[in-house]
Design goal:
This protein has helices spanning 4-14, 20-59, 80-85, 151-156, 203-206, 214-221, 241-252, 261-264, 266-304, 306-314, 319-355, 377-400; strands at residues 65-69, 75-76, 91-106, 109-118, 132-135, 146-150, 166-172, 187-198, 209-213, 227-228, 230-235, 256-259. By secondary structure, it is an alpha+beta fold. It has two domains: 4-58 and 268-400, no CATH class; 65-263, no CATH class. The radius of gyration is 32 Å and the shape is elongated. The chain starts with a helix and ends in a 6-residue tail after the last helix.
Length: 406
């Protein structure tokens, strides 16, 4: 008996109904479910694509692992836990950076900027050469201090990599009282010459960040040579990031935090995930509306098959069995739409991935020409589960209302 209900339901699904409208409504129900399912696959894949592109942008600049103090803004590089990192054989390079805000002036232009001092091992932890848009990377040429600016910051200061004038940087004294009569005497001052500009295509880097040498940053902000705001770590084996992070955290202790690339940009990726799931939620509401078609078509089928229901009842079928028949019928309609939608959505995404049918636009303001897509198996499984569950609920309501006429 267990196989009888789905067998009868399949016969009802593909057989000719007493009224042609029932066939039409059933077909529309399956198509509606398929369209929404395909839309969910496409939207999730596009969000994944944008996430991958942004992650790649950040990875050009951000280190694989970043060590920051658990409290405060700076750490001591001569502290015993930090020194122990240099003895680890699984670390390829450790670079120090010191980042704080300073006032930057070039001729009549001035604005606050994030000044990041980096040492000679910075290039081992960042692909800086791949994001240079003008000039070259250099923070010290052996005679003069150099600076590499975000492209947007350079534009706001009215300069480019070929300008020869000096950049002036100002930061307040950390220790001591400000002279209210001569506040300029309470500022530390350094200058550097621009070497190049870079672009990560993210505002917080391109419009706000400037790279200078670590010694210059330490002088500007009033720190000694053993003070940094973070350590950039490049492991030898990038496939074991989680293990490296855990082991380095144990080595350093609770006074330090070890951040991977996702944690370094935690706010951005959190917003990206929220946008992704809000979009899914909106499509789920659309799917709920589409599920009313399943309720309507199943209700019409129940009315059309009243004579069959009486016959099955006389043959010994109880209400529970008859309800299961029509429950399977409604679920088969949703399943047919789900399978069709999954196939359609994946095919559209693969086509977009290989042929770039939908374009973002033309011009230099776009870093890619077409919408990026990345189909992920967990997304397919999630969409299938959501659609099938809603399809089951939609089928349950009319099937549960069946009453057998004695």
């Amino acid at each position: 008996m267990a196989k009888l209900e789905p067998h009868i339901a399949l016969r009802y699904l593909f057989s000719k109904k007493g009224h042609n409208a029932i066939n039409i409504v059933s077909g529309i129900s399956a198509v509606a479910v398929a369209v929404v399912t395909a839309a969910m696959i496409c939207v999730l894949s596009v969000m994944n694509g944008f996430g991958t592109i942004v992650e790649h942008m950040f990875s050009e600049f951000d280190p694989v692992l970043l060590v920051v103090p658990a409290e405060g803004q700076t750490l001591r590089t001569d502290a015993e836990p930090v020194l122990s990192l240099y003895a680890r054989e699984d670390i390829e390079a450790i670079s120090m950076q010191l980042e704080q805000t300073a006032l930057v002036r070039y001729k009549e232009h001035q604005m606050p900027a994030r000044v990041m001092g980096v040492d000679s091992l910075f290039t081992a932890t960042a692909h800086i050469d791949s994001i240079i848009t003008d000039g070259f990377y250099s923070v010290w040429d052996g005679a003069f201090e150099r600076a590499v600016l975000g492209r947007g910051l350079a534009a706001q200061l009215g300069m480019n990599a070929h300008f020869t004038g000096a950049l002036h940087l100002y930061a307040p004294e950390r220790i001591g009282r400000i002279n209210m009569l001569r506040p300029d005497k309470s500022l530390r001052h350094e200058h550097a010459f621009i070497a190049g500009t870079f672009a990560v295509n993210q505002i917080e880097y391109d419009d706000q960040l400037m790279l200078v040498s670590l010694p210059m940053a330490q002088r500007l902000f009033g720190y000694d040579e053993y003070t940094a705001s973070a350590l950039r770590i490049q492991p030898k084996d990038k496939s074991q990031i989680t293990n490296h992070k855990s082991e380095i955290s144990k080595t350093l202790g609770s006074a330090y935090k070890v951040l991977d690339r996702y944690e370094q940009q935690a706010d951005f990726f959190r917003i990206l995930r929220i946008e992704k799931w809000l979009t899914v939620l909106l499509l789920v509401f659309i799917l709920i509306i589409a599920s009313f078609n399943v309720i309507g078509s199943l209700s019409m089928l129940i009315i059309d098959k009243r004579e069959d229901i009486r016959i099955l009842s006389h043959m010994g079928a109880d209400e529970a069995m008859i309800r299961r028949i029509f429950l399977f019928e409604g679920w088969f309609i949703s399943s047919l739409g789900t399978l069709s939608g999954l196939i359609l959505g994946v095919l559209i995404c693969l086509g977009q991935q290989h042929y770039g049918w939908l374009k973002l636009g033309t011009g230099s303001e776009y870093i890619i020409s077409a919408y990026p897509v990345q189909v992920q198996l967990p997304d397919i499984a999630l969409v299938a589960a959501i659609v099938l569950i809603l399809g089951f609920v939609a089928a349950w309501y009319p099937a549960h209302k069946i009453q057998i006429d004695k």
